[in-house]
């Protein structure tokens, strides 16, 4: 019996070491303006010098057939081209209903310690805004 427990512990330890560790660090955004259809955010960032991966995510509830949602971002005044895995707009007629999210994946370049400013605009029509999240991956 004890031998089996020991084998299970070894197996679980090997599995835990083999699984990649993905740390996600929450970053802060300041709300700049809020209206019924639009929210704007200002997110100060500091480059780490190694092309840090950043994700901006907006969550909504109550999406249905006439919902329209979008996010747009700029970094230091220049438009951000969101990377692979991003979803920056949604039309409810495409079949996504209920709780939905939009997100933008980007890489923050620059010398370590360089201050950057990410600005985000969230547009919504016929869905309830839940929250935004900014994280370093």
The SSE string, one letter per element, is HEEEEEEEEEE
Helix content: 10-25%
Overall 3D shape: elongated
Through-space gap between termini: 42 Å
Number of helices: 1
Number of strands: 10
> Are there runs of 5+ residues with pLDDT below 50, and where?
5-22
Structural class: mainly beta
- Residue-averaged pLDDT: 86
Radius of gyration: 20 Å
What percentage of amino acids are in beta strands?
over 45%
The biggest beta sheet reads: 6 strands, antiparallel
Description:
A hairpin with a 2-residue loop joins β5 and β6. This protein has one helix spanning 2-18; strands at 25-27, 30-34, 38-46, 52-63, 68-75, 78-79, 89-91, 98-108, 115-125, 128-136. Strands 2, 3, 5, 6, 7 and 9 form a 6-stranded antiparallel β-sheet that branches. A 4-stranded antiparallel β-sheet has the order 1-10-4-8, with no helix packed on it. Helices cover 12% and strands 53% of the residues. It has 137 residues and is mainly beta.
Structure, briefly:
The protein is mostly beta strands and 137 residues long. It has one helix and ten strands, in the order αββββββββββ.
Please give a handful of descriptors for the protein shown:
four-stranded antiparallel β-sheet; 1 helix; mainly beta; six-stranded antiparallel β-sheet; elongated; 137 residues; single chain
């Amino acid at each position: 019996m004890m031998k089996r427990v020991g084998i299970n512990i070894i197996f679980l330890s090997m599995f835990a070491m083999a699984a990649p560790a993905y740390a996600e660090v929450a970053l802060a955004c300041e709300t700049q303006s809020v209206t019924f259809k639009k929210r704007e955010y200002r997110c100060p960032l500091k480059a780490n010098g190694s092309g840090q991966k950043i994700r901006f995510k907006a969550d909504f509830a109550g999406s249905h057939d006439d919902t329209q949602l979008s996010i747009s971002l700029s970094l230091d005044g220049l438009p951000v081209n969101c990377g692979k895995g991003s979803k920056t707009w949604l039309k409810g007629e495409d079949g996504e209903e209920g709780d939905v999210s939009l997100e933008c994946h980007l890489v923050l370049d620059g010398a370590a310690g360089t201050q950057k400013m990410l600005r985000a605009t969230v547009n919504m029509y016929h869905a309830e805004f839940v929250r935004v999240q900014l994280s370093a991956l």
